[in-house]
Amino acid sequence: MRVRGIALSMALCAAQAAAADCSRDIAVPVSASGASVQVEGAHIGGIYPDLLRNMGARNGCNFVFNLVPRARQVAMYKDGKADILVPASRTPARDLLGTFVPMIGHRAMLISVAGQRAPIADAKALLERRELRVAVVRGFDYGDHYTALINELGKQGRLFVEVDVVAVARLLHAGSADLTIMGPTLMAGAIQRDQRVKGMQDKLRMEAIPELPWHESGAYVSRALKPEDQRVLVDMLEKIGKSNQVMEGYRRYFRADVLTDSVRPR
């Protein structure tokens, strides 16, 4: 009987560990981001919110999403006010503040409305083409080369910095900017959402340059959380990443030609 009692006690402990509930609500500020995060009125959905809600229900974690501009979202992560930063490219600065869980591989590209201009082979060529105006989204970060490139474009007086992707798409559509630098799925998602730029997708030209290589994209879990909550969330996100559900989500939302050169499985 004593052995059976010990076994039962161990089973109960294992069951409690398996439940692995989060100790509090998990704050996830988000900004509209292609298919990754979609906003319809008061509802926040898209690939990442939907997956988090689904996994959270099974793991005893309640995610509280609130809509903020991208720059504010990143600032909240830096200040320890965002428990999860998603979607996020991996960077050394962000690694200091949280644990990164990769979901997909992606890369930013030069995106413009197709025309007669000569191709741009690298960052040097872009910087030399001083007649070209470039629009980017505040808070986006594709690594050190990207940061150096947009800083130099700013010094040249050729840079527009906008609050979201839709604003950038409208600049391109109006001819007020000549190109942007971001992931093609972000631009495709913005075009799908905004009637003012409908039909623009088939007119786009996408160019890869060596200074914008493939990166990991996924989610950061903040170290401001309790260690036990961090473990629960990292484990949950790892399961999502290994299942390839994020890549499948992209395939449901976008045409193959949008994904081919810019998104690949983890």
Assign a percent range to the helix content: 40-55%
Instruction: Please tally the helical runs, counting DSSP H or I stretches of 4 or more residues.
Output: 11
Largest sheet report: 5 strands, mixed
Secondary-structure element sequence? Answer: HEEEHEHEHEEHEHEHEHEEHHHE
CATH superfamily of the largest domain: Periplasmic binding protein-like II
Q: Which architecture name of the largest domain does CATH use?
A: 3-Layer(aba) Sandwich
Signal peptide: 1-19
Protein name: Transporter substrate-binding domain-containing protein
Keywords: Signal
Secondary structure: elements and pairs:
Elements: H1 2-19, E1 26-30, E2 38-40, E3 43-45, H2 47-59, E4 63-67, H3 70-78, E5 84-89, H4 92-95, E6 98-106, E7 109-113, H5 123-128, E8 134-137, H6 144-155, E9 159-162, H7 165-174, E10 179-182, H8 184-193, E11 204-207, E12 215-222, H9 227-243, H10 245-253, H11 256-259, E13 263-265
Parallel strand pairs: 1-4, 8-9, 8-10
Antiparallel strand pairs: 2-3, 5-12, 6-12, 6-13, 7-10, 7-11
Helix pairs in contact: 2-9
Protein name: Transporter substrate-binding domain-containing protein
Organism: Rugamonas rivuli
Signal peptide: 1-19
